[in-house]
Specification:
This protein has 401 residues and is mostly helical. The chain is built from 16 helices and 3 strands. Strand 1 (3-9) and strand 2 (15-21) form a beta hairpin. Helix 2 packs across helix 3 (83-91), helix 3 (83-91) packs antiparallel against helix 4 and helix 7 runs antiparallel to helix 11.
Length: 401
């Protein structure tokens, strides 16, 4: 059923904005009028159109909310409530993209579709792992338990967030704005000051001459440097937009010193958690690895998992395939080998994910502890040098006069 976005006023005069499922705009307007809403504008929501950044943010928020909503849906089902009634109750608790998605699910379930089929029709909110787990739960008759497992998976994945990017955010912020402040001082503050001092002094101190040379270079070549930076940015975006370029960059990032091993453990922890939870829910290893590959952002690791899937289909061994690719740590490869032999691969992968997550937390904490004082000292040296370069000629000019 189509979804329409509307604007209007309620019986209390407050402005309202939301969405409604209806066969047509007129039917939606009539339904809202029965609810006491005076509609001022109503239009269809076309989700197939190109999404703006605001819509992307809303969809990301809906995906994050689904982790909590899955647990709440499991609780409602355990009370004996039907799936259609439980989804309708859940939709009333949320706003935005998730509310629209839940209302569509309610309409589809009421029309006879399964929960998994309806979720699959909205991939911008429900990922492939969620759809597959819902299908398993419906087929096995334990949808409430499987949804609870799904909620745990989503919450654990949120805990396994991008800790490296979070740890580097403050140092990069400090470095970026510090360098920007230095460039501003070099190009706008220092040149007129030195121009006045040159009329008074016959010889300028060497720190001032160095600062003057840098300042002159930035002023004379500022436009060229800006164009070059823009060109490099465009080239970088173009490389990232290609599959081959993205794969090359992702592989090189994993080879970086210090950060590379942390990123590998972070990604392997996420893969191991997804695989462990999916296997525990009864999904076969081959299909679980396909779903885990879809949830992996790094294209090199995604190709590694795809190669493992191909080897499994040909009757090969997962551990051997992982070892051939050379990206997974030896411990992870050993866990796959032992887990397959013992039949406890799901439990061992979950323990591996927890262990790697703790290692990543400790490593990122140490990295932040090292980077912050280093960058502060670096900026202090730059500011101190600029201060000396500025004060020395001023003091000499005072002695001359």
């Amino acid at each position: 059923m189509p979804v329409f976005g509307y604007q209007g006023t309620g019986t209390d005069g407050k402005r309202l904005r939301g969405s409604i499922h209806a066969e047509s705009a007129r039917a939606g307007r009539d339904s809202l009028r029965q609810q006491g809403v005076t509609v001022t504008a109503i239009r269809p929501i076309d989700e197939s159109a190109q999404r703006s950044w605001l819509q992307y943010v809303r969809q990301h928020r809906a995906r994050a909310q689904w982790a909590v909503a899955a647990h709440e849906l499991s609780m409602l089902l355990r009370t004996g409530m039907g799936i259609d009634e439980a989804v309708a109750t859940l939709a009333d608790q949320y706003r935005g993209g998730l509310r629209i998605a839940l209302r569509r699910i309610h309409d589809d379930v009421t029309a006879g579709r399964s929960l998994a089929e309806s979720m699959a029709m909205q991939p911008h909110v429900f990922d492939a792992a969620s759809v597959r787990l819902a299908e398993v739960g419906e087929n096995a008759g334990n949808l409430d338990a499987v949804l609870d497992e799904l909620a745990q998976l989503k919450q654990r994945m949120a805990e396994f967030g991008d800790k490296v990017a979070t740890a580097l955010m403050y140092p990069m912020f400090l470095l970026t704005f510090g360098v920007a402040a230095m460039i501003f001082l070099m190009t706008w503050v220092l040149p007129p000051l030195l121009e006045n001092l040159q009329e008074t002094l016959t010889q300028i101190p060497w720190p001032t001459r160095i600062a003057q040379s840098i300042s002159t270079f930035l002023v004379n070549n500022g436009l060229m440097l800006l164009v070059a930076s823009g060109a490099l940015l465009v080239i970088g975006v173009w490389i990232l937009s290609t599959e081959r370029g993205r794969t090359w960059i992702d592989r090189q990032v994993l080879k970086l010193p210090v950060i590379g091993p942390i990123l590998i453990k972070q990604n392997v922890a996420r893969i191991a958690m997804v695989l462990g939870m999916l296997l525990r829910s009864g999904i076969p290893l081959r299909e679980s690895m396909q779903l885990a590959a879809r949830s992996t952002r790094n294209t090199s690791l995604r190709r590694t998992l795809a190669k493992c899937v191909d080897d499994l289909s040909a009757g090969g061994d997962v551990a051997a395939a992982l070892q051939d690719q050379g990206l997974f740590p030896p411990l992870a490869i050993r866990v796959f080998a032992v887990g397959q032999e013992s039949g406890e691969l799901d439990q061992m992968l979950i323990r591996l994910a927890d262990d790697y997550n703790q290692q990543v937390q400790r490593a990122t904490s140490r990295l932040t502890t090292m980077l912050e004082p280093t960058l502060i000292l670096f900026m202090a040296v730059l500011v101190g040098f600029l201060l000396v370069a500025t004060m020395l000629p001023i003091l000499q000019a005072g002695q001359v006069t």
